[in-house]
Amino acid sequence: MCGIVGLFIKDASLEPKLGQLTSTMLATMCERGPDSAGFAVYGPATKGRAKITLQSPDPDRDFAGLTAPISKAIGAEVSLERKSTHGVLSVPAGKVDAAREALRTGHPHLRIMSSGDVIEIFKEVGYPTQVASRFDLSKMQGSHAIGHTRMATESAVTTMGAHPFSTGPDQCLVHNGSLSNHHNLRRDLIHDGMSFETENDTEVAAAYISWRMKQGLNLGEALQKSLEDLDGFFTFVVGTKNGFGVLRDPIACKPAVMAETNQYVAFGSEYRALAGLPGIDAARVWEPEPATVYFWER
Amino acid sequence: MPTVDLATTSLRELNELLHKQGAGTNETQWEILNPKGRHAVAVGVDAPLNIDIKGPVGYYVAGMNKHANIVVHGSAGPGAAENMMSGKVVVKGDVSQYAGATGRGGLLVVEGNASSRCGISMKGIDIVVKGNIGHMSAFMAQTGNLVVFGDAGDALGDSIYEARLFVRGSVKSLGADCVEKEMRDEHLDLVDNILQRSGLNGVKPKDFRRYGSSRKLYNFNIDNADAY
Q1: Which residues 75-104 in chain B show a CB within 8 A of chain A?
Q2: Sign of the torsion formed by the C-alpha atoms of A175, A181, A186 and A188
Q3: Contact between B92 and B53 (Cβ < 8 Å)
Q4: How confident is the model at residue B65 (pLDDT cuts 50, 70, 90)?
Q5: Which of B115, B117, B136, B151 to mutate against chain A (most A CBs within 10 Å)?
Q6: What is the pTM of this model?
Q7: Annotated active-site positions of A, please?
Q8: What InterPro entries is this protein classified in (chain B) (predicted)?
Q9: What confidence tens digit (pLDDT) does each residue in A108-148 have?
Q10: What gap in Å lies between CA A5 and CA A156, rounded to an integer?
Q11: A70 lies in some domain
């Protein structure tokens, strides 16, 4: 089944509560996907700095003394904030690619979850409420967040198989459903220079969107194009640095409910994910139409 | 009047309480508070109860209902009144996918919109939707009546059997073997009767158009293979 939640804040006064609200929403979706969970949080930016979120199967070993060799390799100061099995590496904005390369060659045990100016992605195997609490989701702040509770169908229950998938700077995608042409699409995307970390169908969808955006399409256009090229069942929720999008396939079997107020736009696989949001009783609540792109930016 | 607050009472307790009510019960008025999108609220009721659910519910509200009159004061998730046998279910807000699916009797009234697959495989239920209905509605509908004040989405009545579909607004497209049919006096009477029972006024039976099966696909004929 999988459960998706998303919260895109329009009124900045709600930003300090982003993590708390997302955490409550995620908890309601445990039954839809109890094997693993993950979330992307678009937090505050630091001028001139970018973030790379890392995961390690052995964080004590891998994170201790990581900053010195990376600093040396890229010729600039870096810092690391550890959160459980994840660490958020702060690097100068222009040095993201160099830092990723230094990590890839010098620290192959580390997995890169995301990189960008504001995005941080945390994901692990386990019951979703436990995953959320080990990363202190409820204390996080920011402009928008997307969470996912996974019931694995297309690939193994592993940390890397959990959602969200991030295949471009500040981009992420979560998915409820299954794609039927992901093998062919993967081959085409690899031919065009995209790379993959897992056998997961959702990673192909994420990479497809990133690939389209690299061609100059905005997120809305990239999502529209995906209706022509992706085959299967899907409800997607995607995030960009300042945007939030939703798309369902033309059959639209996979559930989706949205709510909008002056303060936020929210997404849930079920209404109960939205039931605790402030002002929900007066919100506009609707079910997104099939094959229709919904997209907000700020 | 029993009031059950789902903030403090479990869903299982609620449904057990409702299932204990027999045909002659004195506790006929029920109020359910704080459903907050929970699934399977008031499912399997088999007594002439009046149940008011004060807020939005999740999947399968009032499923398999028999005899009860259930009103949802909010919206409902997928499968509202699925496989209803008799009684009446009113949803004041919108309903999600496959509302009234496989319903064998009774009346489902949706005062908002219904999304896709409304009345899929309906088998005798009457469904009235004040707003619009989504794609693939009344797919394989067998008997019963679907009355829609607004518009219908793609592939209305695909592979329909003998159910009757009445739509006042536009129909985006008709599914396989579904055709528009003449609105005769008996159909005007039928719609009038359903409208009166639904409590929704302000429309005239003659404003509706009737759709049903052209019965080409009842028996397999190789010449019709493309139509399936």
Answers
A1: 75, 77-78, 93-94, 96-97
A2: negative
A3: no
A4: very high
A5: B115
A6: 0.94
A7: 2
A8: Glu_synth_asu_C_sf, Glu_synth_lsu_3
A9: 999 999 999 999 999 999 999 999 999 999 999 999 999 99
A10: 22
A11: no
- Residue A95 placed within a domain: no
Please report which confidence band the pLDDT of residue A167 belongs to, taking 50, 70 and 90 as the band edges. very high
Q: Chain A residue closest to B94 (CA)? A: A286
- Write down the residue that tokens 């139509």 correspond to: B227
Query: Which CATH number is A35's domain given?
Result: 3.60.20.10
Q: Is A133 helix (H, G, I), strand (E, B) or coil?
A: helix
- Boundaries of every domain in chain B: 113-227
Supply the ipTM of this predicted assembly: 0.91
Per-residue pLDDT at B25: 93
Residue A65 in any domain: the answer is no
3-state secondary structure of B90: strand
Residue whose token pair is 């605790």: A276
Separation of alpha carbons A177 and A175, rounded Å? 6
Decide: A91 and A99 in contact? Cβ < 8 Å: yes
Tell me which H or E stretch contains A130: helix A128-134
> Chains A, B: CB contacts under 8 A, how many?
44
Q: What pLDDT sits at residue A154?
A: 85
**pLDDT score of A242:** 94
pLDDT reported for residue A67: 96
CB contact under 8 A, A285 and B75: yes
Q: Where are the beta strands (DSSP E) in B46-110?
A: 50-54, 69-72, 88-91, 107-110
pLDDT digits (tens, 9 = 90+) for B136-170: 999 999 999 999 999 999 999 999 999 999 999 99
- Verify whether the Cβ–Cβ distance A255 to B116 is below 8 Å: no
Q: For chain A, give the percent of residues with pLDDT over 90.
A: 98
pLDDT at A63: 95
Measured distance CA(A44)–CA(A90) in Å, rounded = 13
What is the b/e burial string over B190-211, where b = at least 16 CB atoms within 10 angstroms of the residue's CB?
bbeebbeebebeeeebeebbbb
Other C-beta atoms lying within 10 Å of the C-beta of residue A86:
23
